[in-house]
Fold:
Amino acid sequence: MEKSNNNTEGTAVIREEEQDLLKKRIMRSVHGYRRRNRIRRGALVLGCVVSVLVAGKMYFRATQPPGVYHYARSLDQGGKDSGGEVRLVMGEEQEISLGAADSTVSYSPNGEKVTIGKSKTVLQKKDDNKQVAFNTLIVPYGKRSRIALSDGTTVWLNSGSKLVYPAVFEGDKREVYLEGEGIFEVTHNKEKPFMVLADNHRIRVLGTVFNVSNYAGDDAVRTVLKSGSVEVAYKGESMWQREKTIRIKPGTMTEYEKNTGRMTSKEVDVDDFFSWKEGVLILENSRMDEIVKKLARYYNIEIEITDLVLARQTFSGYLDLKDSVENVIETIRKTTDFEYFRSGTGNNKWIIN
Structure:
């Protein structure tokens, strides 16, 4: 068992004044990151960030016509949380494992040719009944992936995510289903709106950049708009209520409580919900239990906080996810008093107390 804390011999104890100075330096780095991102955002024609944490109910099963949603709900729900490689499932028969160097996928405009990584190409098998072929990209914990759909839309998928989509979009709309978290850069097509489906939510856009998070086990649905316009459809507080819709403005987060159906909204800094794509986690008054949940997914490890008071404490700062998990935890510890150590088989579990 390997143990690390701020009381072990040879480790300097950080005084309260030093902690305050360190916090100020961390927040200055956060503000600098945000300023740089605001400059880069000027190059985007239209963008938005939507962060959605969705319930496990089956609301849209009754309201959606047969398509990607029903196909996604019929799939085996296992496999995305475990380790291993990113997997591309093409239809119901063909499955390809993507190595670390081949974690990107790109479709041709007609959906018949799929490029994996920089050089590997496979052909999409056609359905004998000429039905739309639905594909699934599965990203386990500890991995990330990027996919370019047949319409030119690009999606960055975070750890523990699954995207279900047609090889080519037909009809008058473009629908995909997401479980987990993804950042979407949608190709504009006014005549063919893009929709992200998830349990209890449907997000309708025309041409935007947004983030959808649909992790099982989370307690709320959150939608954060960066720029542009997004309409969110959701189920109200009563099971007898009709579907409700809300259009949100940039810089606003709506939060839908899954257990009650209650919807609230507030202004936020959207960079905090978008930075993981660049290997950065920006936190502002974030609870420790929520932080370790994100780190556990990103690094494919288990993290347990044994102190309930500590779990409710908040942390603000800038975490470099390209660094080791131990260094990331140590960064948090420097401004928050706790001890931590590794345990379990293969030292893959971290205990914080």
Summary: The first strand starts at residue 2 and ends at 4.
